[in-house]
Design brief:
Oligomer: single chain
CATH architecture of the largest domain: Alpha-Beta Barrel
Helix content: 25-40%
Number of strands: 24
Number of helices: 25
CATH topology of the largest domain: TIM Barrel
Structural class: alpha/beta
Number of domains: 3
Largest sheet: 8 strands, parallel, barrel
Strand order of the largest sheet: 3-4-5-8-9-10-11-12
Distance between the termini: 86 Å
């Protein structure tokens, strides 16, 4: 190309605004190693100076860093100036059995970086991108780990892949974001319309457009794309060259990131550089817009905390001055009770369970209330992360209203108990997984166990530096039931009370049940002290079809017969083992809470005996003293 090189931030001046990704050269269907090196070097000979790889580019977990080794060998054996080549690598994906799974835990990122340093043969990575956001952990944990690695000198430049504008803003609190990589093509323009490309332009950093042809599965669709057809016909070139030229026409900061497994494919992609679109061409593809939406443009505006905000004092209750109160916490934390005094004082309430829709839908409603003069508002939703809270802060500060955060610091076990109590209060019994799913819309504040687990995995502690005027933490205290005085001894069944003659983990026939030693004698001493016996068991074999419900009940009946002692009640969970989708499967506290209520059991005299970690966690959840079966029945 005859024009002057364009400058792409830390990547420098690139005469050819294209980058080669080595995914196709590293994963399933890859060419022989020598051929892959030849393809990379051919791209370098033709002017490519940016190579994109990742620690996860290989066949599986045993083949990690293959792509990085490939790039190193290709560059080191290339006849050109290796100092001109910019190698971008990524971390944050795992490859168990060839699958692609997020792996953003700090220890995983540290291990990946050490492996990449060794594979690339460098003391410092030129650029590392976080491959994906791991939704199983707080984003803050991943970002903090990357910042530490950069401070330790292991990474020169940091960037992000597959992110939104707010996620970039969150990352900027930890390190300077110097590159972005997201999917962008004529068929997938979300990164442009949501403002990510515009943000890269604003920051003066490169935007690497991966899957610029829509991905392998969509390449054929380019032939049928109505916006591409007239351009293909006019210029007489293949659709993928027109598609690449369309991205190149966007100019800085976009760098299409193409893949190739043959030298011919490299040449074909490079031909897009010679295809210059004019105003008529842009009119022909008018249906394809890469412009940010109005909402996206608004999100690009930096969050500036007003210096004129009314100061708030921690611990003060509802007042008459403007303020937005954000009550956060896990489902079942007691947020609704905390909101009641604010409602009584005339605050407007925004709650997703009551209003429906998504959490993001509450933000424009908040803005409307503030604009209309209703400047005392309370929002009680989970808000587990910086991202979730950020939009509320922006909306409030846009109207010069301070925000108070009250975080309900309710332990997960107590929250689970609260949800179970709601279920029992409303329906009189524990609900099956399909019943909980069916009630998701009509009774949304009865979340399934997975919802609470997701919250805990994503939780990021609210902090003043997010923009809150004050952050308060409300500890949880459960009021005791003064009339509950019953004594309860709760026992697991399989491995705790009984074994099998056959050696099977659990019996499927009553004739196979054998009572374990010293059970009857030990339990009699507890009965003599006024304890009632309760049997609680997980029987997921019913859901998996390994045993019938009738057989399970017959085997339990036989166990009680062999025990020869009065058992007050037996409860078993017939639902699947994983993922836990009910509150009756241990370690969920459902059966324990139900029995405590029904028999007015005192937690002071509540004991659980079992042989598995789930039994111990169950005991912890309901506030019972736990004993392992071996030590308990050994006297």
């Amino acid at each position: 190309m005859g024009s002057a090189p364009a400058n792409f931030g830390v990547l420098g001046a690139l005469r050819i605004p294209l980058a080669l990704g080595v995914l196709k050269l590293s994963t399933e269907g890859r060419p022989e190693r020598a051929e892959a090196i030849r393809v990379i070097q051919h791209a370098l000979d033709r002017g490519i100076r940016v190579l994109d790889t990742a620690d996860s580019y290989g066949l599986n977990a045993k083949d990690l860093h293959y792509g990085e080794h490939l790039v190193r060998d290709a560059v080191e054996s290339w006849s050109g100036d290796a100092a001109e080549v910019r190698v971008i690598t990524k971390a944050g994906l795992a490859r168990p059995k060839g699958r692609w799974l997020p792996s953003g835990r700090p220890e995983s990122l540290r291990k990946a970086v050490e492996g990449s340093l060794q594979a690339l043969g460098v003391e410092q990575l030129f650029m590392l991108l976080l491959h994906v956001k791991d939704y199983r952990i707080p984003f803050e944990d991943s970002l903090g780990a990357l910042a530490e690695l950069q401070r330790a000198g292991k990474i020169k430049h940091l960037g992000l892949c597959n992110v939104t504008v707010p996620e970039v803003r969150q990352a900027q609190r930890h390190f300077e974001v110097e590159a972005l990589q997201c999917e962008l093509s004529v068929m997938s323009r979300k990164a442009a319309t949501t403002g990510v490309v515009a943000l890269a332009q604003e920051l003066g950093i490169p935007f690497l457009a991966h899957r610029p042809l829509g991905g392998h599965a969509k390449v054929d669709k380019l032939l049928k794309n109505r916006a591409m057809k007239p351009l293909v016909k006019k210029h007489g070139v293949p659709p993928h060259e027109v598609a690449l030229a369309t991205l190149l026409d966007l100019g800085q900061p976009v760098i299409p990131l193409f893949g190739a497994s043959r030298t011919e494919s490299v040449d074909s992609s490079l031909r897009a550089l010679t295809l210059r679109l004019d105003s008529d061409d842009r009119t022909l593809r008018a249906k394809i817009s890469f412009q940010p939406t109005p909402a996206a443009l608004e999100s690009l505006r930096p969050h500036v905390i007003p210096t004129t905000l009314r100061p708030l004092v921690a611990g003060e209750g509802p007042g008459q001055e403007p303020e937005v109160v954000l009550v956060t916490g896990v489902q079942g934390a007691g947020k609704s009770s905390r909101v009641e005094p604010y409602l009584a004082a005339g605050y407007a309430r925004l709650n997703r369970d009551l209003l429906g829709g998504k959490l993001d839908d509450l933000v424009p409603q908040l803005a409307d209330l503030l604009a209309q003069g209703q400047q005392r508002v309370v929002l009680d939703n989970t808000y587990p992360s910086w991202i979730a809270r950020h939009a509320v802060l922006r909306a409030a500060h846009a109207h010069n209203v301070p925000v108070r955060c009250i975080h309900m610091a309710t332990p997960i076990n107590e929250a689970l108990v609260n949800v179970v109590l709601r279920v029992l209060e409303r329906y009189g019994r524990l609900l099956a997984p399909d019943e909980l799913t069916a009630l998701a819309k009509s009774d949304p504040n009865l979340p399934p166990p997975a919802a609470l687990a997701t919250y805990m995995a994503k939780f990021e502690q609210p902090r003043v530096d997010e923009g809150f005027s004050v952050v308060e933490e409300a500890p949880f205290t459960r009021r005791p039931e003064p009339t509950y005085s019953g004594k309860g001894l709760l026992l697991d069944i399989d491995g705790t009370l009984r074994g099998t003659f056959s050696g099977a983990i659990y019996p499927t026939d009553p004739a196979d049940v054998v009572l374990l030693p010293n059970r009857r004698e030990t339990l009699q001493t507890w009965l003599d002290q006024g304890y009632q016996l309760f049997l609680i068991s997980n029987q997921s074999g019913i859901a998996s079809g390994k045993v019938s419900q009738a057989a399970v009940e017959a085997c339990i009946l036989r166990t009680v017969e062999l025990l020869g002692l009065p058992v007050t009640e037996v409860r078993y969970c017939p639902h699947k083992a994983f993922p836990t989708a009910c509150y009756c499967r241990k370690p969920m506290p459902g059966f324990g809470v139900a029995l405590i209520q029904k028999y007015e059991l005192s937690r002071e005299h509540l004991v659980m005996v079992g042989d598995m970690e789930s039994d111990a966690r169950f005991a912890d959840a309901i506030g019972a003293t736990y004993h392992s079966a071996d030590e308990f029945f050994a006297g």
